[in-house]
Specification:
The protein is an alpha/beta fold and about 290 residues long. It has helices at about 10-15, 40-45, 65-70, 90-95, 110-120, 145-160, 185-200, 215-225, 240-250; strands spanning about 20, 50-55, 80-85, 100-105, 120, 135, 165-170, 175-180, 180-185, 210, 230-235, 250-255, 275. The termini are close together. The relative contact order is 0.19.
Length: about 290
């Protein structure tokens, strides 16, 4: 898989780049543990005085929740080190004049808190709900068939009377790594189903979701402003989010061969990282043959 890729090391990256954006799931952790080498990576960056942020498509957990979860895995990441897709809602609501709007939220309690912090008025989702904004934040907390039935009904009722919902998708991921060889379905898949219905019913007319998370520009623009580096690097495990988003933002990237990194021949990939690391753990990295 790695024949066409330029392999590197953590030490070489630290010497070359002056700021780091790091994906959470698949790079630092999976659902059950810290990934090998994750603690050493963060310690190395701190020792070198390199600023870093954990940039994640999560909108199901607040930064303080994420900090506590990673601490349970032995990773010390302060809440202010996280940039989540959910945190982008505040700026988006202000820019689009959505403060005070009635909002339906698909996601758990932390997702609703993100919306309230952004200035939205969260309303309960049932078969009589009306709202101006539908936010698909996360698959957690979603009663899949029931809530999706309510959401699609609301969306179509509004479209049928010429008052379409504003559709926001925090986490565009379709799947995420649960553990070795195990994957989960995410909110991006829920949004894709709603979009498919809208486009089938109103071909050529239906609006799609505004996507806030990776690989889209909002989260990278916010991350680069906060990082303040002159030569930043994105470290991720997904071509379609981490690597593509870095490419679109004009920054270098390194693909870590854990999490959701592709197993196919790299010459067939649609986008390519600047660098490749089989693992954050140098004991798992062998020279490219």
């Amino acid at each position: 898989m790695t024949e066409a890729l330029s392999q590197t090391s953590i030490d070489a990256l630290v010497e070359t780049y002056d700021g780091f954006l790091i994906d959470a799931y698949g790079v630092l952790v999976d659902k059950n543990r810290a990934m090998p080498g994750a603690r050493k990576l963060l310690a190395r960056l701190d020792a070198a005085g390199r600023p870093w942020l954990v940039v994640t498509n999560s909108a199901s957990r607040l930064p303080e929740t994420l900090s506590a979860e990673l601490a349970a895995f032995g990773l010390a990441v302060a809440p202010e080190r996280f940039l989540t897709s959910g945190s982008l809602l505040q700026e988006h609501f202000q820019e689009q004049g959505s403060v005070g709007s009635r909002c339906v939220v698909l996601g758990p309690e932390d997702s609703r808190i993100y919306v309230e912090r952004a200035g939205g008025r969260v309303v309960a989702l049932d078969d009589e709900t009306d709202a101006e904004v539908l936010i698909v934040a996360d698959q957690k907390g979603v009663r899949c068939l029931q809530d999706m039935d309510f959401a699609v009904s609301l969306m179509l009722r509004r479209m049928d009377v010429g008052r379409p919902l504003r559709l926001l998708l925090c986490n565009p991921d379709l799947i995420y790594p649960v553990g070795p060889g195990r994957f989960g379905f995410t909110s991006g898949g829920l949004a894709a189903m709603l979009e498919a219905v809208a486009h089938e019913r109103y071909p050529g007319e239906a609006n799609g979701f505004i996507r806030l998370g990776k690989p889209y520009r909002p989260i990278f623009s916010a991350a680069l402003r906060r990082l303040g580096a002159t030569r930043p690097l994105m470290i991720g495990d997904q071509l379609g989010t981490d690597i593509l988003g870095a490419l679109r933002s004009g920054i270098d990237s390194v693909l870590v061969g854990t999490g959701l990194a592709p197993r196919s021949d790299s010459r067939t990939w649609p986008v390519h990282p600047t660098w490749y690391l089989p693992s954050l753990d140098p004991r798992g990295n062998t020279p490219v043959g």
